[in-house]
């Protein structure tokens, strides 16, 4: 039994107790009181003496180490308290310090002793500088036999080597003496842990043997007295896991989460060294812009004024509890500052300057959408097409919004779509770092100012129930943005950061109609794009993940429209579900699959084009010099259709899904009617038809309807 | 070149009635959510001088959110009315001085439409009607024409409206007449409920200082309201005026 005296001479009993409890379960209560009590207790010479005697006699409290300084004493007592129990004897209120917690027995309050232990260490820094690590301060009783083991790694904190006094365990991260930050380069992944041993009972061992988990052993000889009667042994250790360049592989993350353990024997007591993954990785992400997508025919209006377009913005500025500010430099801020100092630049000059600054500061533009660098300068290896395949598929799925139309109504449909995915600034860095004590932790640094999703969508479709030409249109414009700035710089900070972002980008809906008519909603119509994103940083098996999904809420409304010519017979009202809710799909970054675009066969494309060109009156092409009554003077329908299909087939980026091809076919029909003459207005002269086929009008339709997934991959540098 | 004018109205947190030269052209309830509408107004224009009157009703608690604005837009025949389209001849909004006043807010604007037909004779110069009972009798007479399937007589009662539409939109009167006959045959005749009202339910409502009266069924609906299959409801508003001393349907 060891008795310790409290600040008011209360008597505590120190006992060995059960297993240590992890810091995650610790809670906080009357911390100040307990901290103050402990500090007073470790300063009491009677307590120091009692502890030393207990250690010398190998008592049951679990103190096996020689205490040589005030610092040592405090570290030891707090460690014992972490796993031990102090029980107050009958005088005064009952207090018990249990497991990883201190609990006041009568109130149930608890104190986080791990933090307290840290506090004790912090509070004794100044003491350490005066007392030093040299044994025997003047106020302490002399000890005749000292047996001590210290571990010191090559890394420094505040210019001092990281030394674990009187310990038998240390975790290390190989690398240069000063911890690397994001983007820093060094190819040093060596690690040497110096074992400092003093054994007054026996002569120092001539060598120690370090055995790694896989059974390989190395011997390290005595370097002689390195001060204070301590003998030193430089133990070279290394991380033996995967050191390849594919950070998106399971193999990498298995290795990243593992450690190489060495057992060092030969001294009076064995020691354990855990070696963690040595490199720091830096990832920069900036997805390329995606082309506009247009399909179908808008009921054109002569726009005279800028119409009000509601811009909706969903945003989240996330914070991680206790994290420090990121060490990354914001590209956006740099650009803003650059723009500020520019005196009267033209718009183009400013744009050029901004681009240049972006490239200079981050290399984002120059290196493509993903830049991945290891701290030794090596570039990460990944299959870009797979990594962003999901995003490409997601982009294309949004263009498939035309699928919501039940049929192509009389007045046609159209879609104008601009989307951006993961545009802006995202920089993360991760790796292992050593803490000031024996622990290491997953260091993580992130600066994110990213538009996860941006959409400018206008779509319209004909109102078949109206007696005049009208199109219902939907305008949805908005962004979903996320911001984060933080650095995890200690083991006790929240490890994983989850940034959820959910909401609806609400749009507006209305009608375009021939002047003189009226079509309107009888009540306000709500429609929009529903979004759900989840950004995770420093998750257990990846540094960064972004998951997203979205869908359209659909459109159901009560409509009132003019009846008869120019509304002569009043109005009619009805309820209609114009489009059901539609899920665009989801994506994950990083993904594991390549994008496979939709692809109608030539026969299928032919069927759609033929359907459009033979709807109502057939489109006909008359040969030069042929008379209208000359039966053999016309192209066959097959010949006409084949020429159009040839152009579609030869185009590199046009989307080949059903709705896009239907939209193009509809546009072609409209163009040919425009060129046509004759009684039906559908008769076209051969030279005009051929000029159209090879001309800019048709090309414009094809260019305007790209497969967004394919476009996205091309822009990102993936060959289609 | 035929010109077509539209009123454009955008409202938030209020209910508005808008009149052009005293004739009702729009009634929108935007108390629950923002609304927008753009009805054509050619049939109620009076040339060089036109007056727009707006009556805005709102809940006192929502007065801060109330927003009222719009335009009178000019289009050419065949143009498409849509966002940003049309030449504004008048942009109007809520006068600032009304903000502190209780509901309703009433204000007026003026504009000119010299390139469109004027219906001053109908809306300003026609004789005023005073006899509500005579208007009710007329409503029952129209009901009788429909009940008996007397399409020719019904069309004749609509003659002033047919002529005015033809003038207003530069279309042959036969186009409208054909549409009306078709409507009579396909909507009014099969729709039994069109006749489902009694004399006491007819509510005449005066506009243009009593020169034009709307025939309503009760206070809430058009006199001729025909629900058909599929949830579709047809409404034929009837506005009565004096034409050569006789009551006739003028709008």
- Count of DSSP H/I helices of chain B: 5
Structural class of chain B: alpha+beta
Strand content of chain A: 25-35%
Number of helical regions of chain A: 16
Number of strands of chain B: 16
The tally of structural domains of chain B comes to: 2
Summarize this structure as a short list of keywords or feature phrases.
heterodimer; A: 720 residues; alpha+beta; eleven-stranded mixed beta sheet; 16 helices; B: 251 residues; 2 domains; four-stranded antiparallel beta sheet
Question: Could you walk me through the main structural features you see in this protein, from its secondary elements to its overall organization?
Answer:
The complex is a heterodimer of chains A (720) and B (251). With 720 residues, chain A is an alpha+beta fold. In chain A, 24% of the residues lie in helices and 35% in strands. In chain A, the strands form 6 sheets. In chain A, strands 17, 18, 19, 20, 21, 22, 23, 24, 26, 27 and 30 form an 11-stranded mixed sheet that branches. A 6-stranded antiparallel sheet of chain A has the order 1-2-3-4-5-6. Chain A has a 5-stranded antiparallel sheet with strand order 8-7-10-14-13, with no helix packed on it. In chain A, helix 3 packs antiparallel against helix 4 and helix 13 runs antiparallel to helix 15. About 16% of the residues of chain A have low confidence. With 251 residues, chain B is of the alpha+beta class. Chain B folds into 2 domains: 120 residues, no CATH class; 118 residues. Chain B contains 5 helices and 16 strands. In chain B, strands 10, 11, 12, 15 and 16 form a 5-stranded antiparallel sheet that branches. In chain B, strands 4-1-6-8 form a 4-stranded antiparallel sheet, with no helix packed on it. The mean pLDDT of chain B is 91. Chains A and B meet through strand 24 and strand 29 of A and strand 4, strand 7, helix 4, helix 5 and strand 14 of B. Strand 24 of chain A pairs antiparallel with strand 7 of chain B, so a sheet runs across the interface.
């Amino acid at each position: 039994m060891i008795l310790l005296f409290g600040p008011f001479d209360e008597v505590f009993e120190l006992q060995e107790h059960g297993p240590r409890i992890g810091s995650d379960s610790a809670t906080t209560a009357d911390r100040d009181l307990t901290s103050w009590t402990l500090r007073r207790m470790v300063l009491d010479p009677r307590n120091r003496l009692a502890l030393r005697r207990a250690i010398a006699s190998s008592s049951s409290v679990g103190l096996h180490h020689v205490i040589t300084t005030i610092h040592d004493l405090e570290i030891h007592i707090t460690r014992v308290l972490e796993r031990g129990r102090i029980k107050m004897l009958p005088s005064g209120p009952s207090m018990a310090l249990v497991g990883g917690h201190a609990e006041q027995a009568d109130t149930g309050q608890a104190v986080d002793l791990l933090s307290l232990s840290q506090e004790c260490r912090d509070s004794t820094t100044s003491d350490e500088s005066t007392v030093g690590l040299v044994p025997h301060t003047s106020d302490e009783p002399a000890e005749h036999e000292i047996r001590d083991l210290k571990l010191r790694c090559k890394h420094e904190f505040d210019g001092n080597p990281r030394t674990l006094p009187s310990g038998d365990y240390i975790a290390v991260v190989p690398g240069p003496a000063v911890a690397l930050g994001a983007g820093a380069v060094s190819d040093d992944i060596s690690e040497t842990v110096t074992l400092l041993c003093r054994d007054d009972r026996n002569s120092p061992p001539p060598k120690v043997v370090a055995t790694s988990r896989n059974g390989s052993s190395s011997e390290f000889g005595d370097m002689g007295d390195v001060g204070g009667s301590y003998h030193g042994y430089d133990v070279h250790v290394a991380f033996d896991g995967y050191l390849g360049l594919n950070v998106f592989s399971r193999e990498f993350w298995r290795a990243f989460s593992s450690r190489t353990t060495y057992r060092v024997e030969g001294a009076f007591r064995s020691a354990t060294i855990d070696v963690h993954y040595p490199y720091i990785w830096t990832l920069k992400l900036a997805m390329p812009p995606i082309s506009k997508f247009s399909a179908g025919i808008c009921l054109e209006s002569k726009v005279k004024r800028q119409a009000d377009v509601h811009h909706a913005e969903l945003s989240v500025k996330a914070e991680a509890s206790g994290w420090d500010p990121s060490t990354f430099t914001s590209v956006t801020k740099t650009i803003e500052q650059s723009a500020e100092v520019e005196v009267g630049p033209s718009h183009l000059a400013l744009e050029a300057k901004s681009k240049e600054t972006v490239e200079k500061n981050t290399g984002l533009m120059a290196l493509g959408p993903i830049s991945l660098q290891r701290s030794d300068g090596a570039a990460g290896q990944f299959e870009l097409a797979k990594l962003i395949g999901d995003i490409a598929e997601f982009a294309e799925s949004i263009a498939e919004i035309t699928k919501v139309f039940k049929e192509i109504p009389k007045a046609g449909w159209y879609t104008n779509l601009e989307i951006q995915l993961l545009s802006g600034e995202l920089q993360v860095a991760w790796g292992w770092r050593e803490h000031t004590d024996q622990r290491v932790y997953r260091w993580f640094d992130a600066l994110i100012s990213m538009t996860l999703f941006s959409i400018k969508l206008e779509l319209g479709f004909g109102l078949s129930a109206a007696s005049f030409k009208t199109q219902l249109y939907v305008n949805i414009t908005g962004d979903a943005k996320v911001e984060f700035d933080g650095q995890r710089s200690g083991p006790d900070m929240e490890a994983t950061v989850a940034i959820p972002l959910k909401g609806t980008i609400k749009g507006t809906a209305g009608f375009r109609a021939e002047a003189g008519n009226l079509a309107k909603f009888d009540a306000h119509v709500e429609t929009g794009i529903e979004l759900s994103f989840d950004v995770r940083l420093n998750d257990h098996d990846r540094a960064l993940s972004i998951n997203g999904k979205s869908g359209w809420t659909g459109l159901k409304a009560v409509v009132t429209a003019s009846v008869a010519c120019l509304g002569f017979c009043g109005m009619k009202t009805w309820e209609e579900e114009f489009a059901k809710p539609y899920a665009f799909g989801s994506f994950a970054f990083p993904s594991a699959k390549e994008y496979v675009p939709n692809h109608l066969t030539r026969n299928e494309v032919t069927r759609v084009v033929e359907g459009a060109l033979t709807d109502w009156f057939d489109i006909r092409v008359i040969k030069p010099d042929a008379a209208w009554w000359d039966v053999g003077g016309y192209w066959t329908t097959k010949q006409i259709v084949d020429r159009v299909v040839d152009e579609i087939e030869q185009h590199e980026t046009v989307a080949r899904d059903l709705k896009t091809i239907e939209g193009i076919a509809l546009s072609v029909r409209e163009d040919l009617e425009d060129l046509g003459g004759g009684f039906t207005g559908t008769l076209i002269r051969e030279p005009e038809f051929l000029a159209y086929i090879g001309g800019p009008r048709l090309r414009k339709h094809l260019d305007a309807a790209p497969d967004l997934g394919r476009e996205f991959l091309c822009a990102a540098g993936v060959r289609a | 070149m035929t010109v077509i004018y539209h009123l454009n109205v955008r409202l938030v947190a209020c209910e508005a009635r808008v009149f052009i030269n005293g004739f009702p052209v729009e009634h929108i309830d935007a108390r629950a959510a923002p609304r927008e509408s753009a009805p054509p107004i050619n049939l109620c224009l009076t040339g060089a001088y036109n007056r727009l009157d707006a009556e805005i009703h709102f809940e006192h608690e929502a007065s801060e959110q109330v927003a009222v604005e719009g335009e009178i837009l000019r289009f050419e025949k065949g143009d498409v009315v849509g966002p940003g389209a049309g030449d504004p001849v008048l942009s109007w909004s809520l006068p600032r001085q009304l903000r502190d006043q209780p509901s309703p807010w009433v204000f007026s604007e003026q504009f000119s439409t010299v390139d469109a037909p004027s219906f001053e004779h109908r809306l300003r110069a026609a004789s005023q009607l005073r006899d509500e009972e005579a208007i009710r009798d007329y409503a029952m007479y129209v009901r009788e024409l429909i009940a008996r399937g007397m399409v020719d007589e019904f069309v004749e009662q609509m003659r002033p409206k047919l002529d005015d539409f033809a003038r207003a939109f530069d279309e042959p009167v036969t186009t409208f007449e054909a549409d009306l006959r078709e409507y009579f045959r396909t909507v009014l005749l099969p729709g039994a409920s069109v006749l489902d009202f009694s004399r006491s339910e007819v509510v005449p409502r005066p506009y243009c200082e009593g020169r034009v009266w709307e025939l309503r069924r009760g206070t809430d609906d058009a006199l001729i309201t025909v629900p058909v299959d599929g949830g579709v409801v047809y409404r034929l508003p009837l506005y009565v005026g004096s034409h050569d001393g006789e009551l006739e349907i003028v709008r």
